[in-house]
Amino acid sequence: MESIYVKICGITNLDDALDAIKYGADAVGFIFHKESPRYISPEDASLIVQKLPKHITKIGVFVDSSRREIEAVLRTSSLSAIQLHGDQHPEDCTGYDVAVIKAFHVGENFDLTQLGLFEVQAILLDTLRPGKPGGTGETFDWNVAVQAKQYGKLLLSGGLTAKNIEDAIRFVRPYGVDVSSGVEKSPGKKDPVKVREFIIKAKTTTFYDESDQDF
Hints:
Elements: E1 5-8, H1 14-22, E2 27-31, H2 42-49, E3 57-63, H3 67-77, E4 81-85, E5 99-106, E6 122-127, H4 142-148, E7 154-156, H5 165-172, E8 176-179, E9 184-186, E10 189-190, H6 192-204
Parallel strand pairs: 1-2, 1-8, 2-3, 3-4, 4-5, 5-6, 6-7, 7-8
Antiparallel strand pairs: 9-10
């Protein structure tokens, strides 16, 4: 049985990226949204990416960025995939030379059918909190995530920590999980102990029922 795909997001420095990889992360995420406390410049992200193993997926996180802005970052940062948050239409998520993850924020009366409109490599579900594009540290109704799997590979996010990751995986059975604030000392700085514990628990929780191919 394959272990679950683990992404450590909000990477701002090389040490945190290397720790995540050392403990078994499959992907690291860089946030290019300037209003985020986990923001990193494309130039700094590029320097980190150059020092990471080739097999690690390097994901750029964008919030309502234009295609021109995203493609400019792709030219300089050597990313493996992009994760789009915001009001993108389905056509805004196609035509890139890298894999695309479309993020959706789940609140009351979330419309699951919209997921079927997007032709992307994976969908990510996070918790809706007005004014915050992510990193809320709060969970949402995982029943929604279970239903969302019919629309493609699912990355589960939102309030995940070492304390709840095993329950989350067993309940949702996602393709992968995505964590940022749940493994931090402070916004933008990871806690290696929390990172290690989170990844070990995620990787050893026996559940996985999606394709074993990465993005």
